[in-house]
Amino acid sequence: MKFALEAAGVTKKFNNKTALADISFEIPRGSAFGIIGRNGAGKTTLIKLILGFLRPSGGALSVIGGAPGEFYSKIGYLPEYSDYHLSFTGREYLKYLAGVSGMNGAAAAAKVSELLEMTGMSDGADRRMAHYSKGMLQKIGIAQALMTSPEFVILDEPFSGLDPFAQKELCDIMAALKTQNKTLLICSHILAHLEKICDGFAIIHRGRIIRHGETSSMLVTRGRYRLSFENAGAAVVEELKEKHGLSIADDGGYILEEKKKGDKEAVLKRLIDSGASINALGESKETLDDYFNSVVSPREAE
Ligand SMILES: Nc1ncnc2c1ncn2[C@@H]1O[C@H](COP(=O)(O)OP(=O)(O)OP(=O)(O)O)[C@@H](O)[C@H]1O
Ligand SMILES: [Mg+2]
């Protein structure tokens, strides 16, 4: 089996509303795949179809070589919203799940300790979950997703509620899962993390995949520069935007994406000839955030 997931022409309608249309993509086994899109784009709906919680209105899904829902023990899942048994301690809750998953006695205790350690929850493990912070609950959610040592791990908004340190720890956990050859499917709005972790992406917009592919081929790595200059006239800047691929970055600086070889030199010459002073020029790799913003317009009505 080459792919952990194959989606072919998947559609999902709720009454008359089309939430997903013609979704087709694959996730190679052992790779990490990110699904990104604005709120309401259809990401969680797609996950529920993959898990077999919802049935597609059309198209087909193959999940670890079977139908959705056929191999639950091979799939780990962190839901977007979790409702835990708050009167349990974290350890009790995980032990209970270990039991449900077929582990007993020392094996269950060892698995629970391993997961608590991995998620940095060993210290809080014996406190009632009712007293947990949002981040602690999220960590227990990640621990439960890994209970059956699944080969396919599906995480819906895993960074939600985690502070920057805990987010970094979770990135490290994901990197460790990749080294164990597990397949990851991650929905998140934290694009900087996804860019580091994921080998491929799909961007869902209004229920359709508008871009998908490998991270390395989606993000521009050559012919893209960060440029800083001052004292350039507005007309010159407009001319450079039109002719030579100059644009303004989110932080107000300039990005130069060469449309053709020599654009960089042409821009620098034009700026210098017009009396502007150049402060800096450096190569700039396109980020997933840049890419997402370039294909999904923030002004477009939802
Ligand atoms: N059970 C349902 N019945 C009717 N409509 C639904 C149902 N579930 C989802 N939808 C609709 O489908 C669309 C996609 O929702 P979904 O939760 O998949 O978005 P999402 O991309 O996960 O968004 P977010 O980033 O906010 O989590 C939304 O318009 C939502 O209202
Ligand atoms: Mg969602």
Automatic annotation (TrEMBL):
InterPro entries: AAA+_ATPase, ABC_transporter-like_ATP-bd, ABC_transporter-like_CS, P-loop_NTPase. Pfam families: ABC_tran. The keyword Metal-binding does not apply. Belongs to the ABC transporter superfamily. Residues 5-231 form the ABC transporter domain. Gene3D superfamilies: P-loop containing nucleotide triphosphate hydrolases. The keyword rRNA-binding does not apply. It comes from Candidatus Wallbacteria bacterium GWC2_49_35. This is ABC transporter domain-containing protein. Keywords: ATP-binding, Nucleotide-binding, Transport. It comes from the Bacteria.
